[in-house]
């Protein structure tokens, strides 16, 4: 038989191999996280559920809140878990990105930490309070300070867009100093207090119970798994959602022997147990 006649027979198994390889490649997911507990959440509570469906999951940690969305947009990763709805909406609008929520997950809240005072009412004129400097989390910090009676913000400003210049009342005379979110725990010793995102607090060895005040999170401040909008209906996105909706995932957060028991559950999860 000539080579020309053999060629179709040779190509059939090769094509089959290519299809099998593509299928296997599609079962590989890289999820981006910021420092702190969400990498552990993926590894300990999401990855085992995806493994049951044949997925290989890689966790890639980023040092800030900027790169995980940029990496997702340029396809360096397949999904990320670090941000809430307010942050996603503002960042996507600012950068022109097309990213979509898959599902909300249990979330640790921002807290006010201090080595110098034990209650918010002990704060006095001239005390320095550090805040995250990215626009979304700065606005969130100001909303926190207003919620607990430390400042007032211009009511004409959308809360998610508030900045320091929108503070209309500061009765205690506090001094606010924005810093990169990852630097806040390290700077805590040199200031009176700091509003620190939970992932960076936990990553630095702080406990949620150490906070003078933890925020009670509305639904749009709970973290989400996010994918590119073009991938929102792909099988891996549906499988990510199913992993989070599994009974095993919820049971992980009901354990009392881990830090995750203090996380605030999303409404869809608590609704399961309402009569």
Description:
Strand 1 (28-33), helix 2 (37-51) and strand 2 form a beta-alpha-beta unit. The termini are far apart. Helix 2 (37-51) packs across helix 8 (235-245). The protein is globular, with a radius of gyration of 23 Å. The longest helix is centred in the first third of the chain and has 24 residues, at 3-26. It has helices at 3-26, 37-51, 67-73, 85-95, 135-147, 184-187, 198-203, 235-245, 247-254, 267-270; strands spanning 28-33, 56-61, 79-84, 99-104, 111-113, 128-132, 152-153, 167-169, 175-179, 193-196, 213-214, 223-228. The protein has 275 residues and is of the alpha/beta class. The strands form 3 sheets. A 5-stranded mixed beta sheet has the order 2-1-3-12-4, with helices on both faces. Strands 9-6-10-5-11 form a 5-stranded mixed beta sheet. It has a two-stranded antiparallel ribbon with strand order 7-8.
Which key terms come to mind for this protein?
about 280 residues; alpha/beta; five-stranded mixed beta sheet; 10 helices; about 35% helix
Task: Report low-confidence residues grouped into runs of 5 or more.
Answer: 3-24
Count of strand segments: 12
The tally of helices reads 10
Beta-strand portion reads 15-25%
Largest sheet: 5 strands, mixed
Ends: how far apart?
A: 74 Å
| Overall 3D shape | globular
Helix content: 25-40%
């Amino acid at each position: 038989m000539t080579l020309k006649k053999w060629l179709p027979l040779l190509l059939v198994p090769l094509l089959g191999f290519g299809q099998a390889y593509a299928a296997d490649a599609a079962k590989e997911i890289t999820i981006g996280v910021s420092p702190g507990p969400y990498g552990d959440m993926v590894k300990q509570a999401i990855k085992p559920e995806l493994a049951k469906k044949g997925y290989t999951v890689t966790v890639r940690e980023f040092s800030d809140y900027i790169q995980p969305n940029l990496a997702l947009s340029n396809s360096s990763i397949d999904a990320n878990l670090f941000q809430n709805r307010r942050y996603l909406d503002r960042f996507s609008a600012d950068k022109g990105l097309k990213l979509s929520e898959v599902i909300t997950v249990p979330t640790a809240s921002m807290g006010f930490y201090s080595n110098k005072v034990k209650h918010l009412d002990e704060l006095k004129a001239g005390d320095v309070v550090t805040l995250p400097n990215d626009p979304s989390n700065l606005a969130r910090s100001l909303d926190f300070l207003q919620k607990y009676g430390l400042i007032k913000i211009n009511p004409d400003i959308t809360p998610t867009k508030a900045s320091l210049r929108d503070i209309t009342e500061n009765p205690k005379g506090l001094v606010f100093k924005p810093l990169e979110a990852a630097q806040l725990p390290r700077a805590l010793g040199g200031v009176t207090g700091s509003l620190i995102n939970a992932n960076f607090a936990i990553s630095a060895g702080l406990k949620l119970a150490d906070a003078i005040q933890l925020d009670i999170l509305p639904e749009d401040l709970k973290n989400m798994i996010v994918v590119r909008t073009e991938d929102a209906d792909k099988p891996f996105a549906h499988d990510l959602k199913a992993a989070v909706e599994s009974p095993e995932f919820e049971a992980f957060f009901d354990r009392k022997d881990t830090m995750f028991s203090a996380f605030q559950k999303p409404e869809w999860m608590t609704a399961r147990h309402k009569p």
